[in-house]
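Re: that backbone. Tokens:
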């Protein structure tokens, strides 16, 4: 494991391979190990692949309270500056995709390409805000176990057993205070539609065909907003196509990388 001290916290990260940089941002309530199939594949294919634990997750510092998306984006920018990476292809899944959109809003000049996987561009609804705050309270009160058990087979399709075991471990091991802080931050996220319309770099939108959290319709909306973007629907996957169907996911990413 490598660590860096940036923005007043310690960030754990993987940095493998050489070449142009591909940076991958995990979702909630996961950690950087969700990107292991992509780190291994693309580092062997001539890319420098960087995957970090977001603050509050994995081996990074847990900061209780509320973590807005701009804070996550600032951490990513600071880590990459620390690593000497000025421009990069940036990808994220679910909450990670929303962080990628925030990065596109705040430092578009550093981006060479974007991957938006199983994510949602609109601001949170009032009902959604209440639900996120209630879930944050529950995680702090009960821990991760009950939530992780309840949502596992929505995160991954039931037939994807190996991916389910990996996702279950990540969710059960997530620090409740970090996960709760992220939930509260996402409750206040903006609508990224205007940001999507301003994207000028090659962009891949990818989604699992069976995703209940961010259905194909949400991915189609993002593709419609980002000029020239491509949409890939991964059959037989739910919310985690990079783990459920890594070969199909990596093929789509490779096609995007060839354009950057």
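Recovered sequence:
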């Amino acid at each position: 494991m490598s660590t860096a001290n940036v923005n007043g916290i310690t960030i754990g990260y993987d940095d493998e391979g050489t070449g142009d940089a591909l940076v991958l941002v995990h979702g909630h309530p996961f950690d950087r190990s969700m990107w292991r199939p992509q780190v291994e594949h693309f580092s062997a294919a001539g890319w420098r692949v960087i995957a970090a634990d977001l603050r509050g997750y994995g081996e990074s510092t847990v900061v209780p309270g509320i973590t807005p998306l701009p804070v996550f984006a600032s951490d990513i920018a600071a880590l990459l500056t620390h690593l000497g990476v000025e421009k990069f292809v940036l990808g994220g899944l679910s909450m990670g995709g929303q962080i990628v959109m925030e990065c596109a809003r705040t430092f578009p000049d550093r981006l060479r390409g974007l991957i938006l996987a199983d994510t949602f561009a609109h601001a949170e609804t009032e009902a959604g805000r209440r639900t996120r705050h209630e879930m944050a309270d529950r995680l702090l009160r009960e821990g991760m176990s009950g939530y992780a058990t309840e949502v596992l087979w929505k995160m991954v399709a039931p037939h994807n057993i190996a991916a389910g075991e990996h996702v279950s471990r990540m969710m059960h091991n997530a620090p409740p205070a970090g996960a709760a802080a992220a939930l509260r931050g996402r409750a206040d996220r903006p609508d990224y539609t205007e940001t999507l319309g301003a994207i000028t770099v090659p962009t891949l939108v990818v989604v699992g065909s069976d995703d209940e959290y961010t259905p194909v319709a949400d991915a189609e909306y993002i593709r419609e907003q980002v000029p020239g973007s491509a949409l890939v629907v991964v059959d037989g996957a739910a919310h985690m196509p990079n783990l459920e169907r890594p070969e199909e996911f990596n093929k789509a990413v490779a096609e995007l990388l060839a354009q950057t």
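The chain has a mean pLDDT of 98. Strands lie at 2-6, 9-16, 21-25, 48-52, 88-93, 111-117, 203-208, 230-234.
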